Amino acid sequence: MSAVPERVGVLGGGRMGAGIAHAFLTSGAAVVVVEQKPEWADAAYERIAASVRTSIARGAVDESESDLLGRLRVSTDKSVFAGAGLVVEAVPEDFALKSTALAEAEQQLDDGAWLATNTSSLSLARLAGELARPERFGGLHFFNPVPASALVEIVVAEATSPDYAVQAAEWVQALGKTAITVRDSPGFASSRLGLAIALEAMRMVEEGVADAADIDAAMTLGYRHPVGPLRTSDLVGLDVRLGIARYLHETIGPRFEPPQILIDLVAEGALGRKSGRGFFDYDEDGAAR
Asked: d(Cα 180, Cα 124) in Å, to the nearest integer?
Protein backbone atom coordinates (compact mmCIF):
# COMPACT_ATOMS: atom_id res chain seq x y z
CA MET A 1 0.00 0.00 0.00
CA SER A 2 1.38 3.44 -0.90
CA ALA A 3 2.01 5.89 1.90
CA VAL A 4 2.96 9.48 2.54
CA PRO A 5 6.36 10.21 4.12
CA GLU A 6 6.41 9.69 7.88
CA ARG A 7 7.39 13.32 8.44
CA VAL A 8 6.39 16.14 6.07
CA GLY A 9 7.31 19.80 6.19
CA VAL A 10 5.28 22.67 4.75
CA LEU A 11 6.90 26.06 4.23
CA GLY A 12 4.14 28.66 4.49
CA GLY A 13 0.93 28.37 6.47
CA GLY A 14 -1.48 30.46 4.42
CA ARG A 15 -4.58 29.12 2.71
CA MET A 16 -2.63 26.75 0.42
CA GLY A 17 0.01 25.76 2.95
CA ALA A 18 -2.60 25.01 5.59
CA GLY A 19 -4.54 22.91 3.09
CA ILE A 20 -1.44 20.94 2.14
CA ALA A 21 -0.61 20.40 5.81
CA HIS A 22 -4.18 19.20 6.41
CA ALA A 23 -3.95 16.72 3.52
CA PHE A 24 -0.76 15.08 4.78
CA LEU A 25 -1.85 15.23 8.43
CA THR A 26 -5.12 13.40 7.76
CA SER A 27 -3.24 10.82 5.69
CA GLY A 28 -1.07 9.77 8.62
CA ALA A 29 2.03 11.97 8.44
CA ALA A 30 3.54 14.05 11.21
CA VAL A 31 3.56 17.59 9.81
CA VAL A 32 5.74 20.59 10.62
CA VAL A 33 4.74 23.98 9.26
CA VAL A 34 7.07 26.98 9.20
CA GLU A 35 5.92 30.60 9.03
CA GLN A 36 7.94 33.84 9.20
CA LYS A 37 6.36 35.48 12.24
CA PRO A 38 4.92 34.10 15.50
CA GLU A 39 1.50 35.63 14.84
CA TRP A 40 1.47 34.07 11.37
CA ALA A 41 2.44 30.73 12.89
CA ASP A 42 -0.44 30.99 15.38
CA ALA A 43 -2.85 31.83 12.57
CA ALA A 44 -1.59 28.85 10.54
CA TYR A 45 -2.19 26.49 13.46
CA GLU A 46 -5.74 27.75 13.92
CA ARG A 47 -6.39 27.50 10.18
CA ILE A 48 -5.26 23.87 10.11
CA ALA A 49 -7.09 23.00 13.35
CA ALA A 50 -10.34 24.44 11.97
CA SER A 51 -9.93 22.39 8.80
CA VAL A 52 -9.28 19.24 10.83
CA ARG A 53 -12.42 19.83 12.90
CA THR A 54 -14.46 20.26 9.73
CA SER A 55 -13.14 16.97 8.33
CA ILE A 56 -14.01 15.17 11.56
CA ALA A 57 -17.51 16.67 11.61
CA ARG A 58 -18.10 15.49 8.05
CA GLY A 59 -16.88 11.99 8.83
CA ALA A 60 -14.01 12.31 6.35
CA VAL A 61 -11.42 11.08 8.88
CA ASP A 62 -11.60 8.48 11.64
CA GLU A 63 -8.97 9.88 14.01
CA SER A 64 -9.73 12.18 16.91
CA GLU A 65 -8.87 15.85 16.90
CA SER A 66 -6.30 15.35 19.65
CA ASP A 67 -4.55 12.55 17.73
CA LEU A 68 -4.44 14.54 14.49
CA LEU A 69 -3.30 17.81 16.04
CA GLY A 70 -0.85 15.89 18.21
CA ARG A 71 1.11 15.22 15.01
CA LEU A 72 1.14 18.90 14.02
CA ARG A 73 3.88 21.38 14.89
CA VAL A 74 4.04 24.99 13.74
CA SER A 75 7.21 27.02 14.11
CA THR A 76 9.17 30.02 12.84
CA ASP A 77 12.42 28.01 12.75
CA LYS A 78 13.26 26.12 9.54
CA SER A 79 15.48 23.73 11.51
CA VAL A 80 12.31 21.78 12.39
CA PHE A 81 12.45 20.45 8.81
CA ALA A 82 15.41 18.26 9.81
CA GLY A 83 14.43 14.61 9.43
CA ALA A 84 11.52 15.30 7.07
CA GLY A 85 11.22 13.00 4.07
CA LEU A 86 9.48 15.73 2.09
CA VAL A 87 9.15 19.50 2.37
CA VAL A 88 6.57 21.34 0.26
CA GLU A 89 7.11 25.07 -0.30
CA ALA A 90 3.85 27.05 -0.35
CA VAL A 91 4.86 30.71 -0.04
CA PRO A 92 3.32 33.42 -2.27
CA GLU A 93 3.81 33.20 -6.04
CA ASP A 94 6.88 35.43 -6.22
CA PHE A 95 10.05 34.09 -7.87
CA ALA A 96 12.61 35.71 -5.58
CA LEU A 97 10.66 34.77 -2.46
CA LYS A 98 10.23 31.16 -3.54
CA SER A 99 13.83 30.76 -4.72
CA THR A 100 15.21 32.00 -1.41
CA ALA A 101 12.73 29.97 0.66
CA LEU A 102 13.54 26.76 -1.21
CA ALA A 103 17.31 27.20 -0.81
CA GLU A 104 16.92 27.86 2.92
CA ALA A 105 14.66 24.85 3.38
CA GLU A 106 17.04 22.57 1.47
CA GLN A 107 19.84 23.42 3.89
CA GLN A 108 17.88 21.70 6.67
CA LEU A 109 17.22 18.46 4.76
CA ASP A 110 19.04 15.17 4.58
CA ASP A 111 20.54 14.26 1.21
CA GLY A 112 17.79 11.69 0.59
CA ALA A 113 14.85 14.00 1.32
CA TRP A 114 12.61 15.45 -1.38
CA LEU A 115 11.88 19.14 -1.83
CA ALA A 116 8.78 20.28 -3.76
CA THR A 117 7.24 23.57 -4.79
CA ASN A 118 3.53 24.30 -4.98
CA THR A 119 4.06 26.93 -7.69
CA SER A 120 1.22 27.10 -10.19
CA SER A 121 3.27 28.49 -13.07
CA LEU A 122 6.91 29.39 -12.36
CA SER A 123 9.87 27.61 -13.98
CA LEU A 124 11.23 24.82 -11.81
CA ALA A 125 14.57 24.99 -13.62
CA ARG A 126 14.94 28.63 -12.57
CA LEU A 127 13.70 27.99 -9.03
CA ALA A 128 16.32 25.24 -8.69
CA GLY A 129 19.10 27.68 -9.58
CA GLU A 130 20.26 28.06 -5.96
CA LEU A 131 19.70 24.43 -4.94
CA ALA A 132 22.53 22.04 -4.18
CA ARG A 133 20.47 18.97 -5.11
CA PRO A 134 18.17 19.87 -8.03
CA GLU A 135 17.65 16.16 -8.74
CA ARG A 136 15.71 15.94 -5.45
CA PHE A 137 13.41 18.82 -6.40
CA GLY A 138 10.09 18.80 -8.28
CA GLY A 139 6.67 20.38 -8.46
CA LEU A 140 3.68 19.33 -6.38
CA HIS A 141 0.89 21.70 -7.42
CA PHE A 142 -2.19 21.43 -5.21
CA PHE A 143 -5.48 23.20 -5.93
CA ASN A 144 -7.59 25.46 -3.75
CA PRO A 145 -9.35 24.42 -1.57
CA VAL A 146 -6.92 21.54 -1.01
CA PRO A 147 -9.18 19.28 1.14
CA ALA A 148 -11.95 19.26 -1.48
CA SER A 149 -9.78 19.24 -4.61
CA ALA A 150 -9.24 15.88 -6.33
CA LEU A 151 -6.21 16.83 -8.44
CA VAL A 152 -2.48 17.28 -7.83
CA GLU A 153 -0.19 18.27 -10.68
CA ILE A 154 3.25 16.63 -10.51
CA VAL A 155 5.86 18.69 -12.36
CA VAL A 156 9.26 17.34 -13.39
CA ALA A 157 12.14 19.51 -14.55
CA GLU A 158 15.04 18.35 -16.70
CA ALA A 159 17.25 17.90 -13.63
CA THR A 160 14.57 16.12 -11.56
CA SER A 161 15.31 12.47 -10.76
CA PRO A 162 12.97 10.02 -12.56
CA ASP A 163 12.23 8.57 -9.11
CA TYR A 164 10.47 11.78 -8.12
CA ALA A 165 7.47 11.27 -10.40
CA VAL A 166 7.07 7.71 -9.11
CA GLN A 167 7.31 8.73 -5.45
CA ALA A 168 5.05 11.75 -5.91
CA ALA A 169 2.37 9.66 -7.62
CA GLU A 170 2.36 7.35 -4.60
CA TRP A 171 1.99 10.29 -2.21
CA VAL A 172 -0.91 11.69 -4.20
CA GLN A 173 -2.64 8.30 -4.23
CA ALA A 174 -2.19 8.04 -0.46
CA LEU A 175 -3.78 11.48 -0.11
CA GLY A 176 -6.85 10.14 -1.92
CA LYS A 177 -6.29 12.39 -4.92
CA THR A 178 -5.50 11.91 -8.61
CA ALA A 179 -2.15 12.90 -10.11
CA ILE A 180 -1.26 14.17 -13.54
CA THR A 181 2.39 14.49 -14.54
CA VAL A 182 3.66 17.31 -16.74
CA ARG A 183 7.07 18.59 -17.74
CA ASP A 184 8.41 21.93 -16.60
CA SER A 185 6.92 24.59 -18.88
CA PRO A 186 5.23 27.98 -18.20
CA GLY A 187 1.87 27.45 -16.53
CA PHE A 188 2.24 23.66 -16.76
CA ALA A 189 -1.09 22.14 -17.90
CA SER A 190 -3.70 23.29 -15.41
CA SER A 191 -2.80 26.96 -14.99
CA ARG A 192 -2.19 27.44 -18.70
CA LEU A 193 -5.53 25.98 -19.77
CA GLY A 194 -7.54 27.42 -16.89
CA LEU A 195 -6.10 30.89 -17.34
CA ALA A 196 -6.74 30.91 -21.10
CA ILE A 197 -10.46 30.36 -20.50
CA ALA A 198 -10.59 32.79 -17.57
CA LEU A 199 -8.89 35.63 -19.43
CA GLU A 200 -11.29 35.30 -22.36
CA ALA A 201 -14.25 35.32 -19.94
CA MET A 202 -12.88 38.52 -18.40
CA ARG A 203 -12.52 40.14 -21.82
CA MET A 204 -16.15 39.24 -22.57
CA VAL A 205 -17.28 41.03 -19.39
CA GLU A 206 -15.05 43.97 -20.29
CA GLU A 207 -16.54 44.15 -23.80
CA GLY A 208 -20.13 43.89 -22.52
CA VAL A 209 -20.82 40.56 -24.24
CA ALA A 210 -22.65 39.34 -21.12
CA ASP A 211 -22.45 39.74 -17.37
CA ALA A 212 -20.28 37.53 -15.17
CA ALA A 213 -23.14 35.29 -14.00
CA ASP A 214 -24.32 34.54 -17.53
CA ILE A 215 -20.82 33.85 -18.81
CA ASP A 216 -20.25 31.40 -15.97
CA ALA A 217 -23.65 29.79 -16.63
CA ALA A 218 -22.64 29.25 -20.25
CA MET A 219 -19.78 27.06 -19.06
CA THR A 220 -21.48 25.31 -16.14
CA LEU A 221 -24.72 24.50 -17.97
CA GLY A 222 -23.50 24.39 -21.55
CA TYR A 223 -20.17 22.61 -21.03
CA ARG A 224 -20.76 20.98 -17.64
CA HIS A 225 -17.91 22.78 -15.89
CA PRO A 226 -18.57 22.40 -12.16
CA VAL A 227 -17.72 26.08 -11.57
CA GLY A 228 -17.57 28.92 -14.10
CA PRO A 229 -14.25 30.56 -15.04
CA LEU A 230 -15.01 33.86 -13.29
CA ARG A 231 -16.14 32.34 -10.01
CA THR A 232 -13.10 30.05 -10.20
CA SER A 233 -10.91 33.12 -10.66
CA ASP A 234 -12.48 34.68 -7.56
CA LEU A 235 -11.71 31.48 -5.65
CA VAL A 236 -8.10 31.32 -6.85
CA GLY A 237 -7.60 35.03 -6.15
CA LEU A 238 -7.57 37.73 -8.80
CA ASP A 239 -4.13 38.85 -7.67
CA VAL A 240 -2.87 35.32 -8.20
CA ARG A 241 -4.53 35.17 -11.64
CA LEU A 242 -2.93 38.51 -12.55
CA GLY A 243 0.53 37.36 -11.48
CA ILE A 244 0.27 34.18 -13.53
CA ALA A 245 -1.10 36.08 -16.54
CA ARG A 246 1.81 38.50 -16.45
CA TYR A 247 4.31 35.65 -16.21
CA LEU A 248 2.73 33.72 -19.10
CA HIS A 249 2.46 36.91 -21.14
CA GLU A 250 6.21 37.36 -20.67
CA THR A 251 7.18 33.73 -21.31
CA ILE A 252 4.61 32.51 -23.87
CA GLY A 253 3.26 35.56 -25.63
CA PRO A 254 0.49 38.12 -26.16
CA ARG A 255 -2.45 35.73 -25.87
CA PHE A 256 -1.92 35.81 -22.10
CA GLU A 257 -1.83 39.60 -21.78
CA PRO A 258 -4.02 40.44 -18.75
CA PRO A 259 -7.17 42.44 -19.60
CA GLN A 260 -7.60 45.87 -18.05
CA ILE A 261 -10.62 44.77 -16.01
CA LEU A 262 -8.42 42.31 -14.11
CA ILE A 263 -5.70 44.89 -13.54
CA ASP A 264 -8.27 47.41 -12.28
CA LEU A 265 -10.00 45.00 -9.90
CA VAL A 266 -6.70 44.00 -8.29
CA ALA A 267 -5.67 47.66 -7.99
CA GLU A 268 -8.97 48.34 -6.17
CA GLY A 269 -8.31 45.49 -3.72
CA ALA A 270 -11.12 43.39 -5.20
CA LEU A 271 -9.20 40.11 -5.08
CA GLY A 272 -12.11 37.68 -5.14
CA ARG A 273 -13.62 35.63 -2.36
CA LYS A 274 -10.81 36.33 0.12
CA SER A 275 -11.49 40.09 -0.03
CA GLY A 276 -15.28 39.82 -0.28
CA ARG A 277 -15.47 41.12 -3.85
CA GLY A 278 -14.19 40.18 -7.27
CA PHE A 279 -16.34 39.38 -10.27
CA PHE A 280 -18.96 38.43 -7.64
CA ASP A 281 -19.66 39.61 -4.08
CA TYR A 282 -19.19 37.32 -1.05
CA ASP A 283 -20.35 37.33 2.55
CA GLU A 284 -18.16 36.88 5.62
CA ASP A 285 -18.30 33.10 5.27
CA GLY A 286 -17.14 33.23 1.65
CA ALA A 287 -20.54 32.39 0.16
CA ALA A 288 -21.51 34.25 -2.99
CA ARG A 289 -24.27 36.83 -2.50
From this structure: 17
